[in-house]
């Protein structure tokens, strides 16, 4: 089985580590970004197989990252999942409207992830 490359973008170091630890059970390598601009840069240069994206991040929020990724033909097909403390229906709908595969709310359940 080949190794998946998953980009996790979150400005909270503890959340980054928790998600990385959860993904260790998979055949996956994890790339980490601490803000939206870094997430966008890594997505374009590394072309991960999946992006787990927080909404509330410095420099560029997750919705802005998703919009930029979906506009760019080189990254438009990368699946992304929002992982956010914003759990209102309007936030979930906005994320899904931007092309996300799913929208998970924090605190995360490892089994759900």
Description:
By secondary structure, the chain is an alpha/beta fold. About 35% of the residues lie in helices and about 20% in strands. The protein has 4 helices and 5 strands, in the order βαβαβαβαβ. The protein has a 5-stranded parallel beta sheet, sandwiched between helices. About 30% of the residues are buried.
Alpha-carbon distance between the termini?
Answer: 20 Å
- Estimate percent helicity: 25-40%
Report the major sheet: 5 strands, parallel
C-alpha Rg, in Å?
13 Å
User: Helix and strand string, N-terminal first?
Assistant: EHEHEHEHE
List the helices and strands and how they pair.
Blueprint: E1 4-9, H1 13-23, E2 28-33, H2 36-46, E3 50-53, H3 62-71, E4 80-84, H4 89-97, E5 102-105
Parallel strand pairs: 1-2, 1-3, 3-4, 4-5
Helix pairs in contact: 2-3
Brief descriptors of the model:
alpha/beta, 5-stranded parallel β-sheet, 113 residues, 4 helices
Describe this structure in a few short sentences.
The protein has 113 residues and is α/β, with parallel strands linked by helices.
């Amino acid at each position: 089985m080949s190794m998946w490359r998953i980009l996790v973008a979150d400005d909270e170091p503890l959340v980054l580590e928790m998600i990385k630890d959860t993904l260790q059970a998979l055949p996956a390598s994890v790339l980490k970004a601490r803000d939206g601009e870094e997430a966008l840069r890594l997505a374009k240069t590394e072309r991960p197989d999946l992006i787990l994206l927080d909404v509330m991040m410095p420099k560029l929020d997750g919705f802005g990252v998703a919009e930029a990724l979906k506009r760019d033909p080189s990254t438009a097909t990368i699946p992304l999942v929002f992982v956010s403390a914003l759990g209102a229906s309007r936030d979930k709908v906005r994320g899904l409207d931007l092309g996300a595969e799913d929208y998970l709310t924090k605190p995360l359940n490892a089994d759900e992830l």
